[in-house]
Amino acid sequence: MKALVYTGPNSIELRDEPDPAPQAGEVLVRVEAVGICGSDMHAYHGYDSRRPAPLILGHEAAGEILSGRKAGMRVTINPLVTCGHCEFCESGVENLCLSRQILSMPPRAGAFAEIVRVPERNLVEVPPNLEITKAALAEPIAVSYHSVIKGARLLPRPLSASRCAVLGGGAIGLTAALVLAMNGAAEIFVGEPSAARRQTVARAGNFQCYAPGETGEPDESSVDLVIDAVGAAATRVAASRMIKPGGVTVHVGLLPGLDGFDLRKITLQEIIVTGSYCYTMADFRETVSALAGGRLGALDWFEERPLAGGSSAFADLDRGAVSQAKIVLRP
Q: What secondary structure does DSSP assign to 1-28, as a single string?
């Protein structure tokens, strides 16, 4: 099969790789669409020791089952593989499973390929009315869905009465804003330094977009819920500044570093800070339902490219030459 293989820092190549062989409980899926994630870019730069070269990256995928009793079914892939029997899995928070694996991280190859092997229990059928490229968006949107729902549950007031801010206008930030809107948030601010990305976000919904540090940024202590989709020192500083007493900050981004949190304010004003990682299977299924039901808007904020053009897609993302929030590759 053809696959896009990470071969070293800033190097990714299309080459022939052996077809995967499914193990017990697994099936083969012919990949029809696969998105490029920020974690793929992080690995591409050589910053992720969990993803050593050579490796097939990619975990935001949808396609058709090729083997087993459900061959021919159109599916989207939950790439988070868990044990299924620990205390976390049995209580419905399988994203906290201590033995979790994810496609694109050894020992599991990713989906930047024509074929990928996946546990059958990780597949969700794609409704007939949902385009396969949009079905591939289920994974990143599920990340956002989980973060928003987690934050909403911790709020002292309903979302319909809450001012919300999303830090970052990439795929996770944009989709977090869409999920907030779907759930009736009263006001939604989105902070993003890139003018092109701000325009993409503004077209996607009724959001108040601003450049950090410039006009339009929420005032100090004025926001009920902050979704930090970047996770950098600068966004932690911004979240600490704008969060209200008793407010909630959900930390989703995975950039390295610990700086930026105002621990004195967090303590004196009883601010809740929580992490959010991936999603549960229930979150993933609800996301697919929302996509199919048109509850997340037109979903016209991504662009498609062939898998063979993957190397140039990574290079374009690296130099900030992509205005859309997501590139979806088509094998």
A: -EEEEEEETTEEEEEE-PPP---TTEEE
Those residues with Cβ within 8 angstroms of residue 293's Cβ, 6 or more apart along the chain or in another chain: none
To the question of domain 143-275 being in CATH 3.40.50.720, the answer is: yes
Whether the pTM exceeds 0.90: the reply is yes
Q: 2-137+299-330 in CATH: which number?
A: 3.90.180.10
Report the first-to-last Cα separation within the chain, whole angstroms.
Answer: 10
Provide the β-strand partners of residue 226.
165, 249
C-alpha span between 240 and 57 (Å, rounded): 34
Q: What is the CA radius of gyration of the chain?
A: 19
- CA pair distance 186, 158, nearest whole angstrom: 9
Domain with CATH 3.90.180.10 in the chain: 2-137+299-330
List pLDDT tens digits, range 209-233: 999 999 999 999 999 999 999 999 9
Determine the 3-state secondary structure of 275 from DSSP: strand
SS (H, E, C) 26-52: EEEEEEEEEECCHHHHHHHCCCCCCCC
- Report how far residue 252's alpha carbon sits from residue 326's, in angstroms, rounded to the nearest whole number: 17
